Amino acid sequence: MPPTINTINPSQGPTTGGTTVTLAGTGMTGSTAVRFGSTNATSFTVNSATQITAVSPPHAAGTVAVTVVHPTGTSNSVTFVYAAAQVPVVTDIAPNNGPTSGGTSVTLTGTGFTGATAVRFAGVPATSFTVNSATQITAVTPAGSAGAAAVTVTTPNGTSAPGAFFYVAPPVLNSAGPAQGPTAGGAVVTLTGSNLLNATTVRFGSTDAASFTVVSATQITATAPPGTGSSPITVITSGGTSNPVAFTYVAAPALTALVPAAGPTSAGTVVTLTGTNLATAKAVTFGGTAVSFTVVSDTQITGVAPAGPAGPVTVTVTTAGGTSPGLTYTRKAPPGI
Description:
Blueprint: E1 4-9, E2 12-14, E3 20-26, E4 33-36, E5 39-40, E6 43-48, E7 51-55, E8 62-70, E9 73-74, E10 78-83, E11 89-94, E12 97-99, E13 105-111, E14 118-121, E15 124-125, E16 128-133, E17 136-140, E18 147-155, E19 158-159, E20 163-168, E21 172-177, E22 180-182, E23 188-194, E24 201-204, E25 207-208, E26 211-216, E27 219-223, E28 233-237, E29 240-241, E30 248-250, E31 254-259, E32 262-264, E33 270-276, E34 283-286, E35 289-290, E36 293-297, E37 300-304, E38 311-319, E39 322-323, E40 327-332
Parallel strand pairs: 2-10, 12-20, 22-30, 32-40
Antiparallel strand pairs: 1-3, 3-7, 4-5, 4-8, 6-7, 8-9, 8-10, 11-13, 13-17, 14-15, 14-18, 16-17, 18-19, 18-20, 21-23, 23-27, 24-25, 24-28, 26-27, 28-29, 31-33, 33-37, 34-35, 34-38, 36-37, 38-39, 38-40
């Protein structure tokens, strides 16, 4: 009595052959051949009276009948489908950009990834890659040159059409102005450099800027957050983190005394201003009028009072740390006859 085949698993494979299939049925002991269409299996093993494993031979794409040959006759047939070889296709790369130094983990989405033997970025093999499924690969970018890089996947069935990954040069900072600001924050700093487009973060020390605007590839304006002491500024883009440029927080100035605290309505009286945090003074005003001044030390400034009407005026000092609370200077009219 000829053998019978009840099931075949798997029921499809590539045209290149090499698929190991399991045939389940009855009466298989002593079988002499397994055929895929009219072609003998590359090899086969009779495991028991109810099971044979066989390796599919190469065949053109399409459906073939699989049979088992036995001295008592040939079995019934079951269907096996030869699928045309699928060249891999890359449909998406995420993220699609990263630094020229490499090391970015990217996810490739597409089809036909099973058995991938290589992933390349502009012809350079990925540092590493993992085939997660027939539709997904994760790969680590190698180092590359700034600009677009063609990404391809290679399997035994061929090499995909390229997708695009963009290598981004690291940002570079040349200067920050002003390079000082008040501890309360709020200083608007202009950063100049190169490769600043697509900046994702500006940091003062380890603190993110209160806000920033990318003006161009060579300029960013950033608002300093509150802080103290030295806080070097860096810019972060998809190309990496820039070199730092210096920025220092300056404590707000304060005035404690004016000597003399009064003078004539005419100009020319030299007034000594005493206080704290005066070293970075950039303006001294009497009643809102800017005057000439000399910074003697962090605690002393001399300024020349301007002419004005008799009466009190407020004296202030402005530094990189802000404007001081005012002290009163009084102008006195000359005696009349």
